[in-house]
Amino acid sequence: MKYDLAMIGLGNMGISVLGAFLHRGKTCMGIDIDVSKLNALQSGKMIVRESGAAEIFEKARNEKRLDYATGIDQIKNAKVVFISVQTPAKGNECDYSALSGVLRQIALQAAPDQAVIIGSTIFPGGLADELLNELRDRPDIRLIYEPVFLRAGYGIEDYLRPGKLVLGIDDPDNPPPEIAELLSQVVEAEPKWVSLQEAEWIKMVHNAWMCGKISFANEMGALCDEYKVDTNRIFDICFSENAQGRLMTLSHMKPGAPYSGPCLPKDATILGGILEKQGRPWMQSGSVLEALRVSNENYIDAIVEQWLATGRETGKPLGLVGLTFRPGFDEMRGSLALPFIRRALAEGLEVRGYDPFFDGIGIEEFMLVCRNDKELESYHAHCSHSLESVWNECGVVLLNRNLDINERRRLDDFSDCPRKIDLYGNKF
């Protein structure tokens, strides 16, 4: 018999994905080394608690669209092979022994140019470092890594209508058309074809974000309880935003500059004080809320050290482009530039800074932007340089803002660029 799908591994994921294909009327084979599982399934018993699975499998069995086997010798008759064996944690590493064993067998049994999808969790580097070697003698096999995001008990529905369909492959620009067509008949989502390594990281980022959300909610909930406020009401209002909101969008989800300014650092520090006084005992070590401040401060320290070390190496002044706390806003309090200036001056190093708000302004105007903070008065001489002088005379430049098109044109005449630490992804 010819199959649309051969599913290797009939645990929660395997049953869910297999059930989704069967629901769409596909002909499939389920493969597992556990004979008791196969006997139960063949007798009509569902081996996992999965919404709708019993009816879907019974219908497929009655229509003779579903076979079972303990070995993989028939996978060559399938359009695609899907692997869903376990990759459990072993300490802080991943145990790929079962997956490696399956790949070795597939290398011996697969048809020429057969597509093989791995659904089992693979952590970043797992494919390149450990698993691809199992297929070294079968370069014709078209390997795909599909990070699957399923809820226990609702896996069939989640696979049919996922939030995203991610498919990692060697050449994302040329996905196999027959596999794309088959998946389009099953999954109601536009596929995102990415590299194998990108697919590994998408799985990691997704699950790490879920861990962060849950830990954040639990810690905030504990603090809200101490203040006798309704956590659910607080969260409902915070996260039920309209299109102008920023908490539930990609706003601030681009790696780059640390947070700074007059508000966020202050609030993170005060939150740390509340945590110290009101936090539960289990929150006193390794708290997510405390890490909000500590991680940001450590990141700033690391960038400052990189900037200073590069400046010392070149023997030239250190440059800063972007001095206000936010690009396009005339406020110096809490600016990310301040710890850079303080450290450099404390070590007797020369600093030259440029910001369009400070370009050519005198000390009185400068102090207005600094809200008359006397500590910053002595910084005026370091912050009022032109963009051209910073670019031409400094050994390293920290880019703390996006340069606009006119500023980039002003730099076109400079053939030699300084070393750059770019926090905003400027393109030169």
Automatic annotation (TrEMBL):
<dbReference type="GO" id="GO:0000271">
    <property type="term" value="P:polysaccharide biosynthetic process"/>
</dbReference>
<dbReference type="GO" id="GO:0016628">
    <property type="term" value="F:oxidoreductase activity, acting on the CH-CH group of donors, NAD or NADP as acceptor"/>
</dbReference>
<dbReference type="InterPro" id="IPR014027">
    <property type="entry name" value="UDP-Glc/GDP-Man_DH_C"/>
</dbReference>
<dbReference type="Pfam" id="PF03720">
    <property type="entry name" value="UDPG_MGDP_dh_C"/>
</dbReference>
<keyword id="KW-0520">NAD</keyword>
<dbReference type="Pfam" id="PF03721">
    <property type="entry name" value="UDPG_MGDP_dh_N"/>
</dbReference>
<dbReference type="GO" id="GO:0016616">
    <property type="term" value="F:oxidoreductase activity, acting on the CH-OH group of donors, NAD or NADP as acceptor"/>
</dbReference>
<comment type="similarity">
    <text>Belongs to the UDP-glucose/GDP-mannose dehydrogenase family.</text>
</comment>
<dbReference type="InterPro" id="IPR036291">
    <property type="entry name" value="NAD(P)-bd_dom_sf"/>
</dbReference>
<dbReference type="Pfam" id="PF00984">
    <property type="entry name" value="UDPG_MGDP_dh"/>
</dbReference>
<dbReference type="InterPro" id="IPR028359">
    <property type="entry name" value="UDP_ManNAc/GlcNAc_DH"/>
</dbReference>
<dbReference type="InterPro" id="IPR001732">
    <property type="entry name" value="UDP-Glc/GDP-Man_DH_N"/>
</dbReference>
<dbReference type="InterPro" id="IPR017476">
    <property type="entry name" value="UDP-Glc/GDP-Man"/>
</dbReference>
<dbReference type="InterPro" id="IPR036220">
    <property type="entry name" value="UDP-Glc/GDP-Man_DH_C_sf"/>
</dbReference>
<feature type="domain" description="UDP-glucose/GDP-mannose dehydrogenase C-terminal">
    <location>
        <begin position="319"/>
        <end position="426"/>
    </location>
</feature>
<dbReference type="GO" id="GO:0051287">
    <property type="term" value="F:NAD binding"/>
</dbReference>
<protein>
    <recommendedName>
        <fullName>UDP-glucose 6-dehydrogenase</fullName>
    </recommendedName>
</protein>
<dbReference type="InterPro" id="IPR008927">
    <property type="entry name" value="6-PGluconate_DH-like_C_sf"/>
</dbReference>
<keyword id="KW-0560">Oxidoreductase</keyword>
<dbReference type="InterPro" id="IPR014026">
    <property type="entry name" value="UDP-Glc/GDP-Man_DH_dimer"/>
</dbReference>
